[in-house]
Every structure is written in C-alpha cells, then in structure tokens.
Amino acid sequence: MRLTVNGIERGIESAPLTPLLYVLREELGITSPKAGCQQGGCGACTVLVDGEARRACLLAVAAVDGAEITTVEGLGAPEALSAIQTAFHEHYAAQCGFCTSGMLIAAHAYLEHGGSGERESIQETLSGHVCRCTGYVKIIDAVAAAAGGEITSRQKWLPQTGEESPVEVPGAPA
Ligand code: FES
Ligand code: FES
Fold it and tell me: Ligand 2 within 6 A of 113 CB?
C-alpha cells in the first residue's frame, strides 16, 4: 500500500486493517493526530483524506490506499503558518493542545469548502470535536476570524532574535 502524506509518497507496511491513525503515529512517526477515544467520538485524530476531514481512528489503511493524507504538519510551517493556524495562535484557541490538531484540520477543511464566519455554522462543523480546556468560544472566534480574513502577519509570532523557533512541529505535542 502507498499513501501520499503531506506531499511525500510513503510505502506502508502495516497490516491492511490497521487504523490509519496508528499507521501515521506508529509507522510514520507523525504525531499530530491524537489517539483520544479511538471510537470516532472525539475528533482528536482527524486528518484530511483527499481533502475531506476524516477520523483516522475509524479508517482501515487499506480503505485509503493511494490517498493523499494531510495532517497539521502539512498545513503550514513555523515560518509560513496557514490562515487557521495563525488564527488559533492569535485567539489563544489552544490550551493543552490535545484537541487542537483535529480542530485545525476540521476548520481548515471547512474554510477550504467556503465555510463562512457564521458562528452556528462553525459550531455545527466542530460539533463532533471535544475540547476539555477552552470552552470552545476562543476556537469559534479563531475560525470566524480566519473565515473573515481577520488575521495579522503569519510570521508575527516568530522570535525576533533570528534564533530558530523551538516549535519544530507546529501544534503537535506528541
Ligand atoms: S480518536 Fe478518533 S475520534 Fe476520538
Ligand atoms: S485545548 Fe485541551 S482539549 Fe482542547
């Protein structure tokens, strides 16, 4: 089996019924998709499969053979954050960060499909994503800001000293 993950084609050696989540985390070492409930209920494992937000814990890797997979590591880089990553940073939409990868992917897909800044639409999009920390208001604020183009420089948060950012994998505590 083969997957294109964040633009790089990878051969997959896991057994065909292995959940995509485990293939990403354990075989490929991509840790932004989180193993939360592992039953499809929390959204922490959400990734893009051919541009659609899907729960990686529920997908056998054989069912997505040949697909393009995008995780948070593929949304942007520290020096070039995506719009939704910038908005999350500017609106303090992440606390512990465990839900953040799934939220970012779902929100990114929402925006890519022309989602508006209307709060009820955003709530509906994120309704299957559980956060223990933020109370959701800041997350919805961030998505609304990204939808409305209300973000400032995507490089604003980088250190001004010329030192490398300590965050090597944005949004992805292991
Ligand atoms: S870990 Fe996949 S939905 Fe919770
Ligand atoms: S930021 Fe902690 S679970 Fe959402």
Answer: no
